[in-house]
């Protein structure tokens, strides 16, 4: 379900590898991703985390065959915290659909390259669910409050061009993985102390204490019974 690769020195590629289900997230897959991320953060040979997905879609969100549970929400929040608070940059390549929880995880990445066929959606409100992964801090910081409200309250899909125009992704590319890998390779060659400090200060100024946002999201899930 999760494949770990080393496509370039210092780059740890973590590939969602469940294409027959459009890489839909199950708790075992999310837990495996969290375990791999934590291991990479501790591995001195790894300088950049590189998130990719197999097949025609990045991720269809939470697998519909699995009911939402507090444990699943907790894993998603831990993943977001690991990426936002960790010193190592996280680069992602997105093709096809990125829906719900998977888009929330992309928001926590530092640089996202999207293919021109990419589509993005936060449809939770339409099925009576609530966002997680720090989306209530990350989304308005990236796209502005008005657009964040529209995305979360209406649940409408966005094209790749709209996502780029909004600032949801860094850039579009004909081959998202190739372009994102070039970026990851460049970052792996930079001074990791400088890169980590840039990331830390940007997040401190833009997000404040990210853990407090995650805590408030968890409280909301509790009130809603998710």
Automatic annotation (TrEMBL):
The protein's matches in CDD domains, at most eight in alphabetical order, are given as:
crotonase-like
Tell me a Gene Ontology molecular-function term this record carries. isomerase activity
Q: Does the keyword Isomerase apply?
A: yes
Q: Name one GO biological process term.
A: fatty acid beta-oxidation
Q: Which InterPro entries match?
A: ClpP/crotonase-like_dom_sf, Enoyl-CoA_hydra/iso
* Keywords in alphabetical order: Isomerase
What is the protein name for this chain? Enoyl-CoA hydratase/isomerase family protein
Q: Which organism is it from?
A: Ramlibacter agri
């Amino acid at each position: 379900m999760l494949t770990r690769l080393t496509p370039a020195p210092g780059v740890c590629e973590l590939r969602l590898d469940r294409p027959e289900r459009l890489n839909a997230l199950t708790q075992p897959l999310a837990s495996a991703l969290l375990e791999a991320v934590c291991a990479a953060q501790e591995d001195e040979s790894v300088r950049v985390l590189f998130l990719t997905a197999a097949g025609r879609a990045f991720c269809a969100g939470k697998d519909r065959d699995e009911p939402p549970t507090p444990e699943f929400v907790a894993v998603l929040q831990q993943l977001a915290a690991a990426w936002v608070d960790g010193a190592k940059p996280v680069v992602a390549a997105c093709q096809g659909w990125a829906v719900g929880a998977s888009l929330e995880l992309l928001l926590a990445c530092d640089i996202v390259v999207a293919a021109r066929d990419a589509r993005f959606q936060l449809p939770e409100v339409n099925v009576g669910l609530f966002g997680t992964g720090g989306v209530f801090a990350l989304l308005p910081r990236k796209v502005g409050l008005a657009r964040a409200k529209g995305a979360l309250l209406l649940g409408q899909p966005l094209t790749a061009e709209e996502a780029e125009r909004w600032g949801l992704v860094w850039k579009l590319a004909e081959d998202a993985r190739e372009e994102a890998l070039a970026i990851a390779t460049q970052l792996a060659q930079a001074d990791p102390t400088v890169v980590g400090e840039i990331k830390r200060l940007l997040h401190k100024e833009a997000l404040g204490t990210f853990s407090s946002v995650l805590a408030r999201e968890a409280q909301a899930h509790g009130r809603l019974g998710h």
